[in-house]
Amino acid sequence: MKKILIAVLTGVLCAGYAYGQSELPLLQNARAYEGTTLNGDWNYIVDVQEEGYYDYRMNPTSSGFFRNAKPRRPEDLIEYDFDKSPTMKIPSDWNTQDDRLFFYEGTVWFKRSFLAVPITDYRTLLYFGAVNYDCHVWVNGRKAGHHIGGFTPFNLDISDLLREGENTIIVKVDNKRHAEDVPTQIFDWWNYGGITRDVMLVKVGPVYLQDYSLQLQKADAKAKDREISFSAKLNKAEAGHTVKVSIPELKLEQQLTTDAEGKVSGTLKVKAKNLQLWSPNNPKLYDVQLTLDASTIADEIGFRTIETRGKQILLNNETVFLKGISIHEEKPNGGGRANSVEDARTLLSWAKELGCNFVRLAHYPHNENMIREAERMGIMVWSEIPCYWTIAWTNPGTYDNAKQQLTDMITRDHNRANIIIWSIANETPHSDERDTFLGNLAEYARTLDSTRLISMAMEVTGASNYVNRLNDNMNKYVDVVSFNEYIGWYRDVNDAAKMSWEIPYDKPVIISEFGGGAKYGLHGPANQRWTEEFQENLYKENLAMIEKIEGLSGTTPWILKDFRSPRRVLPEIQDYYNRKGLFSDKGEKKKAFYILKQWYDSK
Ligand code: GCU
Q1: Is the CB of 512 under 6 A from ligand 1?
Q2: What was the pLDDT predicted at 2?
Q3: Pocket test for ligand 1, best of 558, 559, 563, 564 (most atoms within 8 A of CB)
Q4: CA-363 nearest atom, ligand 1
Q5: Is the predicted pLDDT of residue 469 greater than 60, yes or no?
Q6: pLDDT at residue number 205
Q7: What are the structural domain ranges in the chain?
Q8: For the purposes of burial, counting CB atoms within 10 Å of the CB of 251, is it exposed (0-12), middle (13-18) or buried (19 or more)?
Q9: Test site for ligand 1: of 325, 326, 384, 427, most ligand atoms within 8 A of the Cβ
Q10: Is pLDDT at 5 greater than 50 in this prediction?
């Protein structure tokens, strides 16, 4: 078949014909493939009553917005027009792009057109970094797919929906909350809706590398030879394809042939003296090339090991103390979903300034820029799925949703050396149903990735006078016991330093949250709530207390920066912001920042 010249002008994109138009297993490292961004201006229609979803009249001028219908005759009735509707910069949340949508929870329709020329040798995947929360996608009026979950990527094969010339993508996004969702109906962050991360068309061959993994195997500190395990799988169960992995700087190369399942696996041997291990002090990344038949993609991968031994966490066989901070995915200055490299660099530079080598990315998987910038900056990461508070533990669809989000989080990031902990939950009330749900998730996570540590943020239940007791059945499922405590804030005792803790588990301990609120610039005596002095004293008391906890391996105080929450409504103080940040919502440091920084610098 004659190939039509591929021109990539003004978004002209080669598009392949292929089969299937549904959600495919997530393409790991989509950014490595040739693609075209669809970021930019998208038209949008706010659809409070779901007018656009239903075809009242089964005819070409029906109201279904996904048809992007236009009047063809003077008498035709069409009650919408994307091209005359306003535009929004994508990726973004709609709450901060249109004042009318600040509190909006419902459906918004988006439309974007682009040019394509058909080529038979390739397929086109439509890749979304994330859409919050429930989204349906049409291409040229035909259904391309449906995805739920607001913080993980997904890709749709739209190859056989494309045509020569102009193509139109329409996306219906609904961020309404439901009891059976993940997260459920209540959560202490802003329900930012929309196409909140990058959108791109990815060009892949009929057969492509859907996933691959490079992982340094554990060995004792004196081992002279190290082994890097390599595995990869195609999008199809096809034998006989050649897969080659090479790491030029290490002079490593291996060529393998796929088996009947379209998989390969092997081991690369390297002299320990030649291998620079990834660490906060030396965040070494190696250029890696992966070739399938005749096409090559590139990645940058760091090699390190992470494990526990008794109450210690070991990075590359050395005990490490995790000097962390919790972070929500919100722009550094003001609100709105963070997504850009610049957003990531600013937030992470604040964490570095605080003395951190670790961040807890709460309470959901953050955008890929945040992970990759942290990796370059030598910052270890706790990555978490939003099984937050009162999840519908007995609802099978809820479990499948959580499991899918866990799968996609791990698929996207399991080659990132800086991710050391997968977290499956935050502050979930104790019950047998919860233990079954989360216990299954923890075991499933290990089948996907046996190299990282599993944890979750538990909550303290037992406390009498000055003795606090952690008692959570989930302790047997996790590698690291982590819990949130709010002594001095939700428990009105200001002398945390006198407190002691009983944690009857022979595992490392992370204090995954502690803290208190302060309005930046509000000053007064240390016992006056909301002053910077109150927060400063709370940090002093809590740090004096947690330092004494046996097996303490780290802490991620709550939180780097004030963030928007619909639950925080105190006028002149909160004004819909949770004020527990060490930075204000405008990036100004509060006094408690210096207390934590001094403590970390002393570690
Ligand atoms: C909880 C929860 C956070 C919340 C914080 C708070 O522990 O994990 O998501 O924002 O406490 O109350 O500020």
Answers
A1: no
A2: 36
A3: 558
A4: 9
A5: yes
A6: 95
A7: 2-204, 219-304, 309-601
A8: exposed
A9: 427
A10: no
- Closest ligand 1 atom number to CA of residue 484: 7
DSSP secondary-structure letter at 230? E
pLDDT score recorded for residue 467: 85
Nearest to 556 by CA among 400, 342, 340, 381: 381
Closest residue CA from atom 12 of ligand 1: 188
Total H helices, total E strands in the chain: 6, 35
Q: Report the alpha-carbon distance of residue 601 to residue 603 in Å, rounded.
A: 5
Q: What ligand 1 atom has the least distance to the C-alpha of 490?
A: 12
Measured in Å, residue 188 CA sits from the centre of ligand 1 at 6
What is the whole-number distance in angstroms between the Cα of residue 507 and the centre of ligand 1? 24
Q: Which atom of ligand 1 is nearest to the CA of 426?
A: 8
DSSP 54-68: --SS-STT-S-GGG-
Q: What is the mean pLDDT of residues 374-384?
A: 98
Model confidence pLDDT, tens digit, residues 280-318: 999 999 999 999 998 999 999 999 999 999 999 999 999
Kindly tell me if the per-residue pLDDT of 9 is higher than 50: no
Q: Could you give the angle at the alpha carbon of 458 between the alpha carbons of 456 and 464, nearest 5°?
A: 160
- E strands, 251-292, in order: 252-257, 263-271, 286-292
- Give the pLDDT band (50/70/90) at residue 59: low
Pick from 472, 460, 457: which is nearest to 513 by CA?
Answer: 457
* Average pLDDT value for residue range 519-525: 98
**Is any atom of ligand 1 closer than 6 Å to the C-beta of 578?**
yes
What atom in ligand 1 is closest to the CA of residue 457?
8
For the chain, give the percent of residues with pLDDT over 90.
85
Lowest mean pLDDT among 170-184, 507-521, 545-559: 545-559
State in Å: Cα 329 to ligand 1 middle. Answer: 14
Q: What are phi and psi of 230, to 5 degrees?
A: -125, 135
Name the pLDDT band for 56 (thresholds 50, 70, 90).
low
Asked if residue 427 has its Cβ within 6 Å of ligand 1, the reply is: yes
Residue 57: per-residue pLDDT = 56
In CATH terms, the fold of domain 219-304 is Immunoglobulin-like (2.60.40)
Q: Give CA–CA dist 406/391, Å, rounded.
A: 15
Residues 449, 452, 457, 462: is their CA dihedral positive or negative?
A: positive
pLDDT given for residue 551 in this prediction: 83
Residue that has been written with the tokens 């270890």 in this structure = 380
Ligand 1 near 188 CB (within 6 A): yes
Q: How many CA atoms lie within 13 A of 359 on its CB side?
A: 31
- How far, in Å, from the CA of 513 to the mean position of ligand 1? 8
For residues 483-495, average pLDDT: 85
Q: Which amino acid is at 202?
A: V
According to CATH, the topology of domain 309-601 is TIM Barrel (3.20.20)
CATH top-level class of 2-204 = mainly beta
Q: What is the pLDDT of residues 349-359, one digit of tens each?
A: 999 999 999 99
pLDDT tens-digit series, residues 15-54: 332 223 467 999 999 999 989 999 999 999 999 999 998 7
Of all atoms in ligand 1, which is nearest to the CA of residue 489?
Answer: 12
Q: Answer left, alpha or beta for residue 240, where phi above 0 means left and psi between -120 and 50 means alpha.
A: left
Cis ω for the linkage preceding 133 (within 30 of 0): yes
